[in-house]
Structures are given as C-alpha cells and as structure tokens.
Amino acid sequence: MIQIDNLSFQYQDDKNMALKDISLTIAKGDFIGIIGESGAGKSTLGYAINGIIPHHYKGDYYGRVTVAGLDTFEEEPSSLALHVGSVFQDIDSQMVATEVEDEIIFGLENFGVPKEEIEGRIELALKEIGISHLRHREINSLSGGQKQKVAIAAIVALSPKILLLDEPTGELDPKSSRQIFQMLQRLNKEHNMTIIIIEQKIMLLCEYAKKLIVMKQGQMLCQGDVLEVLKQSDKLEEAGINIPRVSTLCRKLKDLGLTKEEMCIHVDETEAMIRQDILSAGWSEPQGLVNGSVKNTAKVITDNTSENISDVMAAFRNVSFGYNSEMVVKDVSFTIQKGEFVALIGENGAGKSTLSKLFNGLHKPGSGTVLIDNMNTKEVKSSIMAKSVGFLFQNPDRQICQNTIAEEIAFGLRCTTKDETEIERRTSRIIDFFGFDRDAAPFSQSRGERQRIALASLIAVEPRLLILDEPTTGLDYRECMEMMEQIETLNKKGVTVIMICHDMEVVLDFAKRVIVLSEGRIVADGETRVIFRNREALQKASILPPQITELSQRLGDAFMYADTVDEMVQVLTAGKEGAR
C-alpha cells in the first residue's frame, strides 16, 4: 500500500534533517503506530505519506514515496486525499464549517459523492465515532475533544483506503480515546483499511496496533511487532518513550526472579502472571500494607465550606453557567485551599474547560457565586483577576504573540508593571529557570517547548492561582515530566494549581486531590488514591483508573493503595519473603 525508499527531507531554512534515509513498506490492512519524542520526525513522515511534503512544506527532498502505486512527488495532495484520509494535530485548522453536519458534508460534496449516498454516509460516520447527538451543534460550542471526534468522522465518511491520524486522541478522555481506537480497529478488520497513527498514548498503541515504528531525530530507531519493539527497552528509553507501567512492573519482577515472563502489556495478562507465578507459588500476605499511612489518612471530601476564609483560594457556591439555553455547569459547590494541587477530570463535554474559565472571570456565573482570593468574579474585571490567576490554554499558540522568548515573557509583565528594571529581572529569572534561549523564536519551537513558553509567561507574573487546561496534550513523555515537575516545584512554593487532565497516570503522580465532573455536576471529590477506587464515580465520568491501580484492586485487599510500580513490587517481595 505504501512504499518508502531512502527518504530524506530537510525543511527550508532549517539546518537539521527532519528525516534521514527512511525505508519502509506498509502493507494493505496494516495497523501501524508511530511513536517518538517531539521533533523525532513523526509528523514529517506523515506529511510525506499524504503528499503535504513536498507540495506544501518546501525543502530538500530525496528518495521516493509511493501510495497505492502513485508517486507522491508527482501527485497533488488533493488527488492523494482520495487514498489517504488525514486527521491533523491542530483540529481547528481542519474545520471549515460552522455546524457538525456541514463539516461532514463539505468533504463528501467536494469529492463528488452522489447526493443519494451522502445522508447514509453522514449517519454511519457519526454513529461510528459515537457523536450522533452532536449532528446539529455549532462547532464553536464543542469541547476540544468533541471537535477531534468531528474531524475524524468527516474523514471516515470519505471511506479512504488509508487513514493517517496525528495525535487523534490528544484531547480525548480515556473512554473516548479507547472508543476511537476500537473504531479504528473495526475499520481495520472489517474494511481492511490501512491505519497509520502517530500517538503518544503508548498503552493504547500497544493494545490495538499490530506494529510499532520508533522514531528518533529523523531516523527509524526500530520497527516491528509490538511485543518485539517493547522488548527493546533500552532503545525506547533512548527515544524518550514511557512503556506501559505493567510492562515496567513485569520487567522488574523478572529481574528479581519472581517471574519468567518477559513482557506484559495489559492488566489482564499481568494479573494472570502474578497469580500464577507469585501468589500461588509460596506467597503470604504481608503484615503491613504498603502505604498504610495513605490508607489511614485518605478521606472523601464532602464539605469544606467551614475552612478559615483566609486559607481559601477559591470558593464556588451553587454555581451554574451555560451557553445560550444549554446549561454546562450545574449547581457546583466546592472550596479549594491555598497551596492545593487539584485535578479536574471527566469525560469530554463534562464542563471542565467551562468551569476552569469561571476561575479567572472569563465566564461570569449565571447563578451562584465564585470567590477567588476573596474577589467576587462578578464584580472584578478579568484584567484585574489576571494578576492573581494564570491560565494556560489547551493550545499554547492561542497565547503566544511575540518574536522572541524574552519578548514573550516580558509582554505579560508589561501589562502589570511599567518598571523596566523589574521586568528584565523577572524575565531573566524565568528564562534561567526554564533554560530557554532568550533570543529564540517561540513559533520555531516544538509543541512541547511552546507549551513551556506559555507557562513561563504566566509564571513571570507570579500568579497565586494557576489554571492548566490539558497542559500535557501533545507532549512526549520527557516533555510531560519536565513540564509537570516545574509545575510541582511552583506548587511546593505555595502556588495553588488547578489542572484539567485526561492522563490518569499524570493525575496520580502529581495531583493530591481530584474533583470528578459528569454532565456539568460534581460526582466525587476527594484524595486522589481514594477517587481512583470509586468505581461508580469513574464509570459515570468515563474514566479508567491507572494501570497499576486497576491491577491492585483486582489482586485484593493486600494490595490496597499499591498504586505505583515500586509499591506493587514492595508488596509482592514482602509477601514472598514472609512465606519463607
């Protein structure tokens, strides 16, 4: 289906090669996952397959790419689009209509699909993606994740032979992400459609893809069947890839001589391995539970309105908000203390992003009261709120506007102070903290770097409350950890952090408290480890717990609150030693 021979490409005005001597064969019906850190060449490889390179992005092009027998160098992208349906990272740039139905019709009409077929294709595509209820919605009223589903539906409606997707689940909740992969698997199996997916969610790729391609600095580091690639852990680590946590657990248990199993990918097979190789082979429940202190202090937060007002950063009292006649946030009440690190989680469209904009006055409550640092958001201008509340949007490009990183950081400061000496002092301090090149152009940086630049600009203003709307979207594992560790450092210095996040591993690692939203209402609020054991609340919010948490629940009370790989190893080895 796709043949790539000795492909190299260097973008115009870029000193580094984006792709270096790539040779690859993709057969009809393959399901390929492409992984690698930011800047590894993943998207560039995708552009070479769908013909955007060399027809849109100019540069030095070597080698040959053929798709369904067509040379992409000779064929225009519009012609190749009949064979390769593409879904890009920046969903907004792919939208052309104002309503969902019109977005899907646009492609069908442009490619000359007969009128009598159009209605059936629209219905089938919406049903496949699970968004039939959004058919008549305005696109601007949708969440980022819902827009992503619409973009995929518009491409699926065209029935291409090859489906190329670049980070298609970046803004989707865990359940929706899995639904997208299940849909892709169905298209692959039932229609023999070739699927190529660039993705950071390694666990989903390992579960659904047939093969993996690992990229690093424009080259293919390795490729092959999923299990064979995962066994090359040294190469994956070199490429900045975080393998599934049950795979890491399996490797550690093998190194300790507790199992002979080389590699597990899923919770099911990991549970079976532990029961067979360890629990049934001379293991007894250890006397002290791992993380007993966590278990003893864990609580569900039901009402903290009586806390001392001087310690309160945010207080929501019976808050509701909607767009036009549709209520999105419904009678929400909670209090957040100064210095907390809170995650807002829930399905796409649950009201998380809308709720986040109520913190800084971008939205004023339709009813109820929002108090931020003792300021009533109905009475205080959002420009005044911005001095206390920093807001990081999902897309960093929405809040970057200057030519250099130094100018970008200074821009926000000049909105709050006219003291140029103070502006330069803070700008230099922030640049040193993040390790930036002050003269570098923000838009020449990777998505992850642009996210860090946007965050740095907020931090320079020294907000007391930081709102993060999906801060890790589009970041590779290394960038994600760097970003979150910097946020954690700020939190330890006293900055209150509210984070919307769909990556439950990140939530577990960094958030101390979780608020779960479903259909605009709070369904659970409590300490992170407690919430991840509230099956009813997670199910309502379409949330799947982290892998090790799910595994510990399945293995029973002896593993209560063993939520990390090291904690699970601790319980298993303690039980093994106790049996001796």
- Averaged pLDDT: 88
Spans of at least 5 consecutive residues with low confidence: 290-306
Name of the CATH first level of the largest domain: Alpha Beta
Q: Tally the beta strands.
A: 20
Strand content: 15-25%
Q: Biggest β-sheet: count, sense, barrel?
A: 6 strands, mixed
Shape: globular
Which structural class best describes the helix and strand composition?
alpha/beta
CATH architectural type of the largest domain: 3-Layer(aba) Sandwich
Question: What key attributes describe this structure?
Answer:
580 residues; alpha/beta; Rossmann fold; 3 domains; six-stranded mixed beta sheet; 22% strand
Describe the overall structure:
The chain has 580 residues and is an alpha/beta fold. Strand 11 and strand 12 form a beta hairpin. It has three domains: 240 residues, P-loop containing nucleotide triphosphate hydrolases (Rossmann fold, 3-Layer(aba) Sandwich), CATH 3.40.50; 68 residues, no CATH class; 249 residues, P-loop containing nucleotide triphosphate hydrolases (Rossmann fold). Strands 6-7-8-3-9-10 form a six-stranded mixed beta sheet, with helices on both faces. A six-stranded mixed beta sheet has the order 16-17-18-13-19-20, with helices on both faces. It has a four-stranded antiparallel beta sheet with strand order 2-1-4-5, covered by helices on one side. The protein contains 24 helices and 20 strands. Helices cover 40% and strands 22% of the residues. About 3% of the residues have low confidence.
